[in-house]
Amino acid sequence: MSDLAVSVIVLTFHSRRTIDACLDALAPQVAEVGGELVVADNGSTDGTVEHVRGRGDARVLAFGENLGFAGGCNRAVAATASPVVVLVNPDAVLAPGGLARLVAAVRSRPRIGLLGARAVHADGRYDERCVLGLPNLSGAVAFATLLDVPLRRRVPTLVGHGPVELAAGAGVRRVPAVSGAVLAVRREAWEQLGGFDEAFFLYGEDVDLAARAARHGRPTAVHTDVDYTHVGAASSSDPLRRDVLLFRGKAQLYRTHLGPLLGPLAVALLVVGAAVRGRIGRLLPGRRRAAANWQALFEHRRAWTGGHPTVGDRTAAELTAARAAAA
Q: pTM score, two decimals?
Protein backbone atom coordinates (compact mmCIF):
# COMPACT_ATOMS: atom_id res chain seq x y z
CA MET A 1 0.00 0.00 0.00
CA SER A 2 1.22 3.48 -0.87
CA ASP A 3 2.43 5.92 1.80
CA LEU A 4 0.42 8.62 0.04
CA ALA A 5 -2.86 9.63 1.71
CA VAL A 6 -4.89 9.89 -1.48
CA SER A 7 -4.70 9.59 -5.24
CA VAL A 8 -6.70 12.32 -6.96
CA ILE A 9 -7.50 11.28 -10.53
CA VAL A 10 -8.72 13.61 -13.26
CA LEU A 11 -9.83 11.81 -16.43
CA THR A 12 -9.55 14.09 -19.45
CA PHE A 13 -10.94 14.02 -22.98
CA HIS A 14 -10.50 17.17 -25.05
CA SER A 15 -10.28 19.12 -21.78
CA ARG A 16 -7.73 21.81 -22.68
CA ARG A 17 -10.30 24.57 -22.14
CA THR A 18 -11.23 23.63 -18.56
CA ILE A 19 -8.27 21.74 -17.14
CA ASP A 20 -6.33 24.71 -15.75
CA ALA A 21 -9.10 25.81 -13.39
CA CYS A 22 -9.53 22.23 -12.21
CA LEU A 23 -5.83 21.62 -11.54
CA ASP A 24 -5.23 25.08 -10.07
CA ALA A 25 -7.82 24.21 -7.41
CA LEU A 26 -6.58 20.67 -6.83
CA ALA A 27 -2.78 20.96 -6.83
CA PRO A 28 -2.37 22.89 -3.54
CA GLN A 29 -4.98 20.71 -1.81
CA VAL A 30 -3.26 17.50 -2.91
CA ALA A 31 0.05 18.82 -1.59
CA GLU A 32 -1.62 19.78 1.70
CA VAL A 33 -2.93 16.27 2.40
CA GLY A 34 0.13 14.44 1.14
CA GLY A 35 -1.31 12.86 -1.96
CA GLU A 36 -0.67 12.51 -5.66
CA LEU A 37 -2.41 14.24 -8.56
CA VAL A 38 -2.90 12.08 -11.64
CA VAL A 39 -4.27 13.20 -15.00
CA ALA A 40 -5.36 10.27 -17.14
CA ASP A 41 -6.17 11.11 -20.75
CA ASN A 42 -8.58 9.27 -23.03
CA GLY A 43 -6.94 10.09 -26.35
CA SER A 44 -7.39 13.87 -26.51
CA THR A 45 -6.28 15.58 -29.73
CA ASP A 46 -6.64 19.18 -28.52
CA GLY A 47 -3.29 19.45 -26.75
CA THR A 48 -4.57 18.49 -23.29
CA VAL A 49 -1.77 16.01 -22.58
CA GLU A 50 1.02 18.31 -23.73
CA HIS A 51 -0.39 21.20 -21.73
CA VAL A 52 -0.71 19.21 -18.50
CA ARG A 53 2.82 17.83 -18.89
CA GLY A 54 4.03 21.39 -19.31
CA ARG A 55 2.39 22.43 -16.03
CA GLY A 56 4.44 19.84 -14.14
CA ASP A 57 2.07 19.45 -11.17
CA ALA A 58 0.48 16.12 -12.11
CA ARG A 59 1.51 12.63 -13.17
CA VAL A 60 0.17 12.00 -16.67
CA LEU A 61 -1.22 8.73 -17.97
CA ALA A 62 -1.88 8.97 -21.72
CA PHE A 63 -4.04 6.06 -22.87
CA GLY A 64 -4.03 7.07 -26.54
CA GLU A 65 -7.64 6.00 -27.08
CA ASN A 66 -11.09 6.78 -25.73
CA LEU A 67 -11.82 4.09 -23.14
CA GLY A 68 -14.97 5.82 -21.95
CA PHE A 69 -15.36 7.33 -18.50
CA ALA A 70 -15.73 3.98 -16.76
CA GLY A 71 -12.85 2.31 -18.57
CA GLY A 72 -10.52 5.28 -18.22
CA CYS A 73 -11.19 5.65 -14.50
CA ASN A 74 -10.72 1.93 -13.90
CA ARG A 75 -7.34 1.92 -15.63
CA ALA A 76 -6.23 5.06 -13.82
CA VAL A 77 -7.23 3.73 -10.39
CA ALA A 78 -5.34 0.50 -11.14
CA ALA A 79 -2.21 2.59 -11.79
CA THR A 80 -2.32 4.04 -8.25
CA ALA A 81 -2.01 2.49 -4.80
CA SER A 82 -3.23 5.04 -2.21
CA PRO A 83 -5.83 3.86 0.33
CA VAL A 84 -8.25 6.60 -0.76
CA VAL A 85 -9.13 7.56 -4.34
CA VAL A 86 -10.87 10.77 -5.37
CA LEU A 87 -12.16 11.13 -8.92
CA VAL A 88 -12.64 14.69 -10.19
CA ASN A 89 -14.00 15.72 -13.58
CA PRO A 90 -11.76 18.07 -15.58
CA ASP A 91 -14.53 20.70 -15.66
CA ALA A 92 -15.08 20.58 -11.89
CA VAL A 93 -13.47 23.05 -9.49
CA LEU A 94 -13.20 21.90 -5.86
CA ALA A 95 -13.44 24.62 -3.22
CA PRO A 96 -10.42 25.12 -0.91
CA GLY A 97 -10.24 22.61 1.95
CA GLY A 98 -12.66 20.25 0.23
CA LEU A 99 -10.18 17.48 -0.47
CA ALA A 100 -9.00 17.26 3.15
CA ARG A 101 -12.62 16.99 4.33
CA LEU A 102 -13.42 14.25 1.82
CA VAL A 103 -10.35 12.21 2.76
CA ALA A 104 -11.01 12.59 6.50
CA ALA A 105 -14.66 11.56 6.09
CA VAL A 106 -13.84 8.48 4.02
CA ARG A 107 -11.13 7.40 6.45
CA SER A 108 -13.38 7.76 9.49
CA ARG A 109 -16.26 5.79 7.93
CA PRO A 110 -14.88 2.40 6.87
CA ARG A 111 -18.26 1.04 5.77
CA ILE A 112 -19.15 3.94 3.51
CA GLY A 113 -19.34 3.07 -0.15
CA LEU A 114 -19.14 6.32 -2.11
CA LEU A 115 -18.81 9.90 -0.94
CA GLY A 116 -19.70 12.83 -3.16
CA ALA A 117 -19.61 16.58 -2.67
CA ARG A 118 -22.15 19.41 -2.92
CA ALA A 119 -22.22 21.08 -6.33
CA VAL A 120 -23.07 24.76 -6.57
CA HIS A 121 -23.66 27.14 -9.44
CA ALA A 122 -21.38 30.11 -10.02
CA ASP A 123 -23.68 32.29 -7.90
CA GLY A 124 -23.54 29.85 -4.97
CA ARG A 125 -26.96 28.24 -5.45
CA TYR A 126 -27.16 24.49 -4.94
CA ASP A 127 -26.79 22.46 -8.16
CA GLU A 128 -29.10 19.45 -7.82
CA ARG A 129 -27.22 17.46 -10.49
CA CYS A 130 -24.72 16.28 -7.88
CA VAL A 131 -27.14 13.96 -6.05
CA LEU A 132 -28.95 11.31 -8.05
CA GLY A 133 -31.63 8.69 -7.62
CA LEU A 134 -31.58 4.96 -8.28
CA PRO A 135 -33.37 3.48 -11.30
CA ASN A 136 -36.96 2.45 -10.63
CA LEU A 137 -40.08 1.82 -12.70
CA SER A 138 -42.06 4.56 -10.96
CA GLY A 139 -39.49 7.07 -12.16
CA ALA A 140 -39.94 5.92 -15.77
CA VAL A 141 -43.73 6.18 -15.41
CA ALA A 142 -43.42 9.68 -13.97
CA PHE A 143 -41.14 10.72 -16.84
CA ALA A 144 -43.57 9.41 -19.46
CA THR A 145 -46.52 11.22 -17.86
CA LEU A 146 -44.63 14.45 -17.00
CA LEU A 147 -45.33 13.85 -13.31
CA ASP A 148 -41.60 13.82 -12.61
CA VAL A 149 -41.58 17.63 -12.71
CA PRO A 150 -43.97 18.28 -9.77
CA LEU A 151 -42.96 15.15 -7.85
CA ARG A 152 -39.21 15.83 -7.81
CA ARG A 153 -39.58 18.18 -4.87
CA ARG A 154 -42.15 16.18 -2.93
CA VAL A 155 -40.98 12.58 -3.31
CA PRO A 156 -37.69 12.63 -5.27
CA THR A 157 -36.85 8.95 -4.69
CA LEU A 158 -40.19 7.91 -6.21
CA VAL A 159 -39.17 9.45 -9.52
CA GLY A 160 -35.58 8.22 -9.39
CA HIS A 161 -34.12 11.56 -8.37
CA GLY A 162 -32.07 12.87 -5.48
CA PRO A 163 -33.08 15.80 -3.25
CA VAL A 164 -33.52 19.05 -5.15
CA GLU A 165 -32.44 21.03 -2.08
CA LEU A 166 -29.36 20.23 -0.01
CA ALA A 167 -28.28 22.79 2.56
CA ALA A 168 -24.63 23.36 3.35
CA GLY A 169 -23.27 22.64 6.80
CA ALA A 170 -25.10 19.37 7.46
CA GLY A 171 -21.95 17.25 7.38
CA VAL A 172 -22.11 13.83 5.75
CA ARG A 173 -25.63 12.93 4.62
CA ARG A 174 -26.80 9.65 3.09
CA VAL A 175 -28.31 9.84 -0.40
CA PRO A 176 -29.28 7.24 -3.04
CA ALA A 177 -26.44 8.06 -5.45
CA VAL A 178 -23.95 10.82 -6.25
CA SER A 179 -22.45 12.25 -9.40
CA GLY A 180 -19.06 10.97 -10.49
CA ALA A 181 -17.95 14.59 -11.03
CA VAL A 182 -16.40 14.50 -7.54
CA LEU A 183 -16.31 11.05 -6.01
CA ALA A 184 -14.26 9.75 -3.07
CA VAL A 185 -13.96 6.06 -2.22
CA ARG A 186 -11.80 3.78 -0.10
CA ARG A 187 -9.68 1.53 -2.29
CA GLU A 188 -10.92 -1.58 -0.50
CA ALA A 189 -14.51 -0.63 -1.35
CA TRP A 190 -13.58 0.13 -4.96
CA GLU A 191 -11.90 -3.25 -5.33
CA GLN A 192 -14.76 -5.08 -3.61
CA LEU A 193 -17.17 -3.56 -6.12
CA GLY A 194 -14.86 -4.11 -9.08
CA GLY A 195 -14.79 -0.41 -9.95
CA PHE A 196 -17.06 1.02 -12.61
CA ASP A 197 -18.97 -1.34 -14.88
CA GLU A 198 -17.40 -0.73 -18.29
CA ALA A 199 -20.67 -1.58 -20.01
CA PHE A 200 -21.43 2.07 -19.17
CA PHE A 201 -19.31 4.00 -21.66
CA LEU A 202 -20.35 7.44 -20.44
CA TYR A 203 -23.21 8.40 -18.08
CA GLY A 204 -24.91 6.06 -15.65
CA GLU A 205 -21.77 4.43 -14.28
CA ASP A 206 -21.92 6.46 -11.05
CA VAL A 207 -25.52 5.45 -10.32
CA ASP A 208 -24.77 1.83 -11.18
CA LEU A 209 -21.82 1.83 -8.77
CA ALA A 210 -23.99 3.31 -5.99
CA ALA A 211 -26.66 0.64 -6.58
CA ARG A 212 -24.08 -2.13 -6.37
CA ALA A 213 -22.49 -0.56 -3.30
CA ALA A 214 -25.88 -0.52 -1.55
CA ARG A 215 -26.31 -4.24 -2.23
CA HIS A 216 -22.97 -4.81 -0.50
CA GLY A 217 -24.09 -2.86 2.56
CA ARG A 218 -22.00 0.17 1.65
CA PRO A 219 -24.16 3.34 1.65
CA THR A 220 -23.58 6.36 -0.55
CA ALA A 221 -23.35 9.84 0.99
CA VAL A 222 -22.64 13.45 0.12
CA HIS A 223 -20.45 15.78 2.15
CA THR A 224 -22.46 18.99 2.45
CA ASP A 225 -19.41 20.90 3.72
CA VAL A 226 -17.50 20.31 0.48
CA ASP A 227 -18.53 22.47 -2.48
CA TYR A 228 -17.54 22.40 -6.12
CA THR A 229 -18.65 23.98 -9.36
CA HIS A 230 -19.17 21.84 -12.44
CA VAL A 231 -19.68 22.92 -16.04
CA GLY A 232 -20.95 19.52 -17.19
CA ALA A 233 -20.62 17.96 -20.68
CA ALA A 234 -17.69 20.28 -21.40
CA SER A 235 -16.08 17.80 -23.79
CA SER A 236 -19.21 17.48 -25.95
CA SER A 237 -19.97 20.18 -28.53
CA ASP A 238 -22.98 18.36 -30.01
CA PRO A 239 -26.13 18.61 -27.84
CA LEU A 240 -27.79 15.68 -29.60
CA ARG A 241 -24.74 13.50 -29.11
CA ARG A 242 -24.69 14.45 -25.43
CA ASP A 243 -28.38 13.66 -25.01
CA VAL A 244 -28.03 10.33 -26.79
CA LEU A 245 -25.17 9.35 -24.48
CA LEU A 246 -27.14 10.48 -21.43
CA PHE A 247 -30.18 8.44 -22.39
CA ARG A 248 -28.02 5.47 -23.31
CA GLY A 249 -26.87 5.56 -19.72
CA LYS A 250 -30.46 5.72 -18.47
CA ALA A 251 -31.47 2.81 -20.71
CA GLN A 252 -28.46 0.81 -19.56
CA LEU A 253 -29.38 1.43 -15.92
CA TYR A 254 -32.95 0.28 -16.43
CA ARG A 255 -31.92 -2.83 -18.35
CA THR A 256 -29.22 -3.69 -15.82
CA HIS A 257 -31.14 -3.12 -12.59
CA LEU A 258 -34.81 -3.71 -13.40
CA GLY A 259 -34.44 -7.08 -15.12
CA PRO A 260 -35.52 -8.57 -18.46
CA LEU A 261 -39.22 -7.67 -18.08
CA LEU A 262 -39.36 -4.31 -16.30
CA GLY A 263 -36.14 -2.99 -17.87
CA PRO A 264 -37.43 -2.85 -21.47
CA LEU A 265 -40.75 -1.48 -20.20
CA ALA A 266 -38.96 1.36 -18.43
CA VAL A 267 -36.94 2.12 -21.58
CA ALA A 268 -40.17 2.23 -23.61
CA LEU A 269 -41.52 4.76 -21.13
CA LEU A 270 -38.42 6.91 -21.73
CA VAL A 271 -39.29 6.94 -25.42
CA VAL A 272 -42.87 7.98 -24.62
CA GLY A 273 -41.62 10.75 -22.34
CA ALA A 274 -39.29 12.15 -25.01
CA ALA A 275 -42.11 12.10 -27.59
CA VAL A 276 -44.59 13.80 -25.26
CA ARG A 277 -42.12 16.54 -24.35
CA GLY A 278 -41.38 17.12 -28.03
CA ARG A 279 -45.06 17.44 -28.92
CA ILE A 280 -46.29 19.48 -25.97
CA GLY A 281 -43.27 21.78 -25.85
CA ARG A 282 -43.99 23.07 -29.35
CA LEU A 283 -47.29 24.46 -28.08
CA LEU A 284 -45.77 26.42 -25.19
CA PRO A 285 -44.19 29.86 -25.59
CA GLY A 286 -40.47 29.81 -24.90
CA ARG A 287 -40.21 26.01 -25.02
CA ARG A 288 -39.75 25.44 -28.75
CA ARG A 289 -35.98 24.97 -28.61
CA ALA A 290 -36.27 22.45 -25.78
CA ALA A 291 -39.10 20.75 -27.66
CA ALA A 292 -36.90 20.46 -30.75
CA ASN A 293 -34.21 18.78 -28.64
CA TRP A 294 -36.72 16.28 -27.25
CA GLN A 295 -38.09 15.61 -30.73
CA ALA A 296 -34.58 14.95 -32.05
CA LEU A 297 -33.91 12.57 -29.18
CA PHE A 298 -37.14 10.73 -29.94
CA GLU A 299 -36.34 10.50 -33.65
CA HIS A 300 -32.91 9.02 -32.85
CA ARG A 301 -34.24 6.60 -30.23
CA ARG A 302 -32.65 3.62 -31.94
CA ALA A 303 -29.27 5.10 -31.06
CA TRP A 304 -29.95 4.91 -27.30
CA THR A 305 -32.75 2.51 -26.35
CA GLY A 306 -30.42 -0.48 -26.43
CA GLY A 307 -28.05 1.08 -23.90
CA HIS A 308 -24.34 1.53 -24.51
CA PRO A 309 -22.65 -0.39 -27.32
CA THR A 310 -20.53 -3.30 -26.16
CA VAL A 311 -17.53 -2.13 -28.17
CA GLY A 312 -16.40 1.49 -28.31
CA ASP A 313 -18.42 4.65 -28.76
CA ARG A 314 -20.24 4.61 -32.10
CA THR A 315 -22.50 7.57 -31.38
CA ALA A 316 -21.06 9.94 -33.98
CA ALA A 317 -21.23 7.36 -36.77
CA GLU A 318 -24.76 6.37 -35.82
CA LEU A 319 -26.01 9.95 -35.81
CA THR A 320 -24.29 10.72 -39.11
CA ALA A 321 -25.95 7.72 -40.72
CA ALA A 322 -29.33 8.62 -39.21
CA ARG A 323 -29.15 12.21 -40.41
CA ALA A 324 -28.08 11.08 -43.90
CA ALA A 325 -31.03 8.68 -44.05
CA ALA A 326 -33.42 11.43 -42.99
CA ALA A 327 -32.09 13.93 -45.55
A: 0.90
